[in-house]
Amino acid sequence: MTTQKVFGVSLMESIDAKSYNGVPFVLYYLFAAIELQSHDKEIYKSHPEQARYLPSLFKQMNSNIYVENIHPYLAATAVETYLSSLTEPLITNLASESLSTWMQTDHCHTELKSILFTLPRENRNTLRFILCHLKLIASVHGTSYLSRLCFIFAPKLMGKSNKKLLQLSAANGKILVKLVENLDKVLPSAVPFSNPTTVFSDLTIKTTDDRQV
Questions:
Q1: Which of 49, 65, 108, 144 has a CA positioned 20 to 30 A from the CA of residue 3?
Q2: pLDDT at residue number 64
Q3: Domain 11-206 belongs to what topology?
C-alpha cells in the first residue's frame, strides 16, 4: 500500500493508488484479516475503541505485514470507516432510489441487474467483492446473520446524504440481502479467481473466489 491518503478519497483514487482486479487493495487486505477470523460473530459489532489504531494499521499495510497479525476488530473498523468516507457512495443515491422502487415492485432479477449496471464498472467490481465477503461471513453463522451484516453495511454502501434513504435504512438492508442471495444472477463474475489464495508481493492474502464483475 502506498502512503497516499486512504480515507476521504474517491473510489477511483483508491484504485489508482493500488488495486487488484479493479478493486481497492485496501479492501483485499482488510477482508483477508477478517476472513481469517470469520468464526467470531462480534467482528462487525461496533468497536469505537479501535479507531485510535487506524493510523498505525495503514503504516503496517505500507510495510506489507502479514494479515494474520491484524486484529479483525481493527480491520472491520477500518472497512466501515473507509466505505463511509468515500467521496461518493459505492451505490449512488440515484441507484439506491431505483433499488428502493424495485423492492416495492415485482422483484424481477433482470430489472435488478439493469439497475446495478448503471453503476461504473469499478463500483460494480468493488460491490461484488464486498457482497461476496458478506456471503462468506454469513455462511459461517447462518441466514439470520446475513440480515444483520446487511443492515450494518447498508448506510455505508448506499449513502446517507438523502433524508429519504436514512428513513429507509432497514429497507436498504433488505435490498442488500437480495443482492447477496442473487449475486451470480445480478452481478455475474467475468473472470473468476482460480485460486482462493492471492499473493501481493510479500503479502499473502486469503480471499474468496468469483469476486470480479
A1: 49
A2: 58
A3: Phosphatidylinositol 3-kinase; Chain A (1.10.555)
